[in-house]
Write a structure and sequence with these properties.
This protein is mainly beta and 183 residues long. 9% of the residues lie in helices and 68% in strands.
Length: 183
């Protein structure tokens, strides 16, 4: 159960950082610069099937103690920082809460954007958990974004992803929002 909680927390972290990415053909110059994370939340529903046995889970993750930044150039991004996540899980009817300090997160890659969508195609972060390197990448992540009149960046994602590897199929639905302030 502890490994499932850590994996779900990592998934929520991935959602948080991947929400900074998105797609289109023309970069939006309003994104260029450094943005500091102010808040994030993610609702995640997943079903994993192994040898015909399904495990369903739901989670609500929120971020706190944000010291996390993303810097956009016209076509590239870098990330760095730390934050804390609190995740409330329900796995096959059992509730649990897990808090984790996420330290030393870094990432870099390319992105494309339109007036209201951003797509990232490279790894948005790498970190270690118990000495094991964790790198997330692979499928491009697309999210909607807006920059408000008070220079706040709001990134929203509503996406379903299905991954299948070595006889294990996982379907994940992610609904997340992150808020950023321009430095």
């Amino acid at each position: 159960m502890s490994n499932l909680i850590k994996l779900s927390s990592l998934l929520a972290l991935f959602v948080f950082v991947s929400a900074c990415e998105s797609g289109g053909e023309t970069p939006t110059l309003n994104l260029v610069g450094t943005w500091s994370a102010a808040s994030f939340s993610a609702n995640v529903e997943s079903t994993t099937t192994v040898n015909g046995v399904s495990i369903s889970s739901t989670s609500v993750t929120t971020g706190s103690d944000m010291n996390y930044k993303v810097t956009f150039t016209e076509t590239e991004f870098t990330t760095a920082g730390d934050y804390t996540t609190t995740t409330n899980f329900t796995v096959n009817g059992t509730d649990q809460t897990f808090t984790s300090d996420i330290m030393g997160v870094t990432g870099s890659g390319t992105y494309t954007s339109t007036a209201n969508q951003i797509t990232v195609s490279d790894s948005f972060f790498t970190l270690e958990i118990n000495g094991t390197p964790i790198q997330t990448g692979g499928q491009p992540q697309t999210a909607s974004y807006e920059i408000t009149s008070n220079n706040e960046l709001i990134i929203s994602q509503d996406q379903t992803i299905t991954l299948s590897e070595l006889g294990v199929t996982t379907t994940v639905t992610i609904v997340s929002t992150s808020r950023w302030t321009k430095d």
